[in-house]
Amino acid sequence: MKEEKLPSVVGSKSFTAVAINCAAKAGEWVKTKLGTTLQLNQKVSASDLVTEIDKGSERLIRNLISTHFPQHSFLGEEGVEPGADASTQAIASAKDAEYLWIVDPIDGTTNFVHGFPFFCVSIALAYKGEVIVGVIYDPSSDELFVAEKGKGAYVHGKRLEISKEMKLQESLIATGFPPDQSYALPLNLRAIARLAPQVRNIRSGGSAALHMAYVAAGRLTGFFEYNLNSWDLAAGSLIIQEAGGKVTDIEGHSYHLEVRDVVASNGHIHQELLQELGRV
Ligand code: 2AM
Ligand code: CA
């Protein structure tokens, strides 16, 4: 009898277990490099940084994923040319893959470089364009946020729940400043000028993925940011939805992998937030 060829997959670990393992390993390694002398490279400007640690973290994750799932596709920030056009193109051509891993090896690189402890590793797995696993690991606080489609979102085994605020007035809202200064910056400044007098307060921590995890955990009421990439948002979008929150584009359409201008919230204040941002 002809011997059946086995697929070259090591063990039979679940997608989620592999995602957690990758995020934890990469995050721990990244943390050991905090405060060491970094070789800094600018992407398109002095506010768009990449280090050899971003690249090493992505290599580690990519190798581990391909050991377990060699047939799966992989989209990582460091494998794509800098700039919005290349990122838009990259997700457009990758999104139809059967299984696609979407990875930000360090979200919050500027914070990492400055030793500001608010950065993370973000890993999502999409099946036919829909995120089914999302993991965000913050090595500074040792918090691992994880969600599986239909099974809820958790941190350290505790179920995540969005916050209870019902009005913008009582909301803590985060935003971010991606490095592009022609599209995102003027929009963002107008949005902040409009929102600041109407919310409890505004925060800007410097990691879109961690802001998303914080919305899921009820620590932020909402988050918006312009011109983000798929790897900043994919894992967080599932974690928020599984925690009971809402993620859309700036016009209120449901989240999908190509969204760049994002609005995320506990759901209760979503319409109010969209409305104000629509007037910017
Ligand atoms: P990063 O650290 O992975 O680069 C800060 O507002 C957020 O913007 C961070 O999540 C940061 O992610 C992201 N960001 C940085 N450079 C970007 C770029 N060129 N395009 C889009 N988002 C970017
Ligand atoms: Ca990054």
From TrEMBL:
Transmembrane annotation, as ranges: none
InterPro entries cross-referenced by the UniProt entry: IMPase (IPR033942), Inositol_monoP_metal-BS (IPR020583), Inositol_monophosphatase-like (IPR000760), Inositol_monophosphatase_CS (IPR020550), Inositol_monophosphatase_SuhB (IPR022337)
Keywords in alphabetical order: Hydrolase, Magnesium, Metal-binding
Cofactor(s) listed in the protein's UniProt record: Mg(2+)
Primary enzyme class: hydrolase
EC number: 3.1.3.25
Catalytic activity of the protein: a myo-inositol phosphate + H2O = myo-inositol + phosphate
Keyword Secreted part of the UniProt annotation: no
Superkingdom of origin: Bacteria
SUPFAM superfamilies with a match to the protein in the record: Carbohydrate phosphatase (SSF56655)
Alphabetical list of PANTHER family matching this protein: INOSITOL MONOPHOSPHATASE, INOSITOL-1-MONOPHOSPHATASE-RELATED
Family: Belongs to the inositol monophosphatase superfamily.
Name this protein carries in UniProt: Inositol-1-monophosphatase
